[in-house]
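Late entry, written up from scratch paper. The run itself happened at the end of the previous shift, but nothing got recorded in the book at the time, so transcribing now.
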Amino acid sequence: MTPTTASYTCSSCCKYRPKFQTSYVTDRTCVKYCSTAGKGKCGSYWSWNSGCRYRPKFGTDYVLDRSCLDFCVKLDGAIKGCNGVYMYAKNSCMKRASFSTSYYLDKDCLGYKLQEALDRAFG
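Output as recorded:
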């Protein structure tokens, strides 16, 4: 099977080299998004991918928050700075468990905050 021009260009713009590796790999989520949104959206995807990263407590490397990336991809750039909107909402919804020093994400709160942001953006 021969790849179509669109999928070929998307697969080429959706390659990245993981840390400490010499070969490139293809980001399948990027290819899926690019195939529907168009090759010009690769830059947006990588910007969201970068903006949806955070460093966990006691961690040295940044980790991708997949829910944040999914939020931005679903909106397809309709909210400028969607990754900032998501991460702000997420951080404001971190709650401390009773009699504990650890925090957890209150998903009801996050859903409410994200809906609030969408309502503000789209009226």
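Confidence is low (pLDDT under 50) at residues 1-5.
(Scratch paper discarded after transcription.)
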